Amino acid sequence: MSIYFFKEMGRVKTDILELCAMVEDRLHKAVVAVVTRDAELARTVVEADQEIDAKEVDIEEELLKIMALNQPVAVDLRFLVATLKINSDLERIGDLAVNIAERALVLNRKVHDTMPVDLSQMSEAVKAMLRRSIDALVNIDAEAARAVCRDDDAIDQMKHEIDDEIKVRMTRETEKDAIDVLVALLRVTRDLERISDHATNIAEDLIYISDGRIVRHHVTD
């Protein structure tokens, strides 16, 4: 391969890590906005969505150009194909962070005292899962990626338990504002669970880069 190829590969790696940092920052802010009902912080997440979209498009175009011009094989091809998928997963996480921020705006308008349901444990677990999947990607650590995959079930269980609590509360409420709040929280749990799925996808793609094995949502030993 040419020097140009290796320079372009290095640029893609830098760009994908920049996108990781952007997405992680947006998710953190969106979660904080929900917990604290911070409308201004939520708006910064919503308004920054185009930045992530533009970065994702730039990376995709660069990856496709590298593949078209260099016809890579073996580990280089695996890296490029997996990075193309990771790029898409990161963009979707950014979109879901925007969804969560929009729910925070609803909560800001409706909630004037304590939150009816505690989302802190689930939101922190999802943020940690994303952080660990990114760390595994940075370090090309397949074992750490497998641990991320195994944790997905725990997030699903948290979602089911919180959703059950929300649905019970909904049957007892008669005020529209209270029901609107519970619906918004139900949607937040759905978005958080989807983010955990995308974090799992990133971990699975890292395993593919490292080991050449396609995992597809089941844990490998």
Describe the secondary structure blueprint for this structure:
Blueprint: H1 3-36, H2 39-47, H3 49-70, H4 74-110, H5 120-139, H6 142-172, H7 176-211
Written account of the structure:
- It is a single chain.
- The longest helix is centred in the middle third of the chain and has 37 residues, at 74-110.
- The chain has a single domain (3-211), classed as Phosphate transport system protein phou homolog 2, domain 2 (Methane Monooxygenase Hydroxylase, Chain G, domain 1), CATH 1.20.58.220.
- Helices cover 86% and strands 0% of the residues.
- It is elongated and about 65 Å long.
- It is mainly alpha-helical and 221 residues long.
- Say what the CATH topology is: Methane Monooxygenase Hydroxylase, Chain G, domain 1
- What is the share of helical residues? over 70%
What summary fits the major beta sheet?
Answer: none
CATH superfamily: Phosphate transport system protein phou homolog 2, domain 2
CA gyration radius, whole angstroms? 19 Å
Which structural class is indicated by helix and strand composition? mainly alpha
User: Beta-strand percentage?
Assistant: under 5%
SS elements, strand count: 0
Number of helices: 7
Low-pLDDT stretches are: none
**How many angstroms does the end-to-end distance come to?**
34 Å
Overall geometry = elongated
CATH class: Mainly Alpha
Q: Can you tell me the CATH architecture?
A: Up-down Bundle
What number is the mean pLDDT? 90
Keywords:
221 residues; mainly alpha; elongated
What is shown here, in short?
The protein is mainly alpha-helical. It has seven helices and no strands.
